[in-house]
Design goal:
A hairpin with a 2-residue loop joins β7 and β8. The chain is built from 3 helices and 8 strands; from the N terminus they run ααββββββββα. The protein has a 5-stranded mixed β-sheet with strand order 2-8-7-4-5, with no helix packed on it. It folds into 2 domains: about 45 residues, no CATH class; about 100 residues, Sandwich (Immunoglobulin-like).
Length: about 180
């Protein structure tokens, strides 16, 4: 008796899930748009991407997001990882009709080396959609490879290729 109930519940859930997944591809009429929007938001949370997750003070980074409110301002903020206090913010970014955005954000020049949080949020009808990503701020740049190191790396590569070719020739002579 328990199996048919579980099967019925699974069918209802699968049907609901297929409606949510394929809704953008069909013109569906829902009697209650709010219910559809709530379900859509559950299965399509806001997403945030950063071009660089390791940055330096004063750098400008590219921030992209999707599944935010459509045609609304997005506030990009830099937060302290532990206290969650806002260090810097910018609200000049705007989403498109699909809820996507790409903008540039300036990392403050006076930051110390640590981990921070980039947060993007949009608001519509007192409902906030937000996403976060961690970044690492380094105060000293790694040294650039010099010409000497480049020559050494190339020389080691050539020696390795010669050794492999000699071993291959020895094996061919034995056969």
């Amino acid at each position: 008796m328990l199996l048919p109930a579980r099967l019925a519940l699974a069918l209802v859930f699968a049907s609901l899930l297929s409606i949510i997944i394929y809704a953008p591809f069909y013109s569906l009429q829902f009697s209650d748009e709010k219910i559809f929007q709530e379900l859509w938001d559950i299965f399509h949370p806001p997403n945030l991407q950063l071009k660089n997750e390791i940055v330096f003070p004063g750098d400008v980074i590219e921030v992209s997001g999707s599944n935010f409110h459509q045609n609304k301002n997005v506030t990009i903020s830099l937060l302290n990882k532990t206290s969650r206090k806002t260090i810097s913010s910018d609200n000049s970014c705007m989403t498109g009709p699909e809820g996507k955005f790409t903008c540039r954000f300036q990392i403050p020049a006076n930051l110390s080396e640590d981990e921070y949080i980039i947060k993007a949020e949009s608001e519509k009808d007192n409902k906030i959609k937000a996403a976060e990503k961690r970044i690492k701020v380094l105060t000293s740049r790694p040294p650039e490879p010099t010409l000497e190191w480049s020559v050494i790396i190339v020389a080691v590569g050539i020696v390795a290729i010669v050794v492999v070719l000699k071993k291959f020739r020895r094996k061919r002579k034995k056969i």
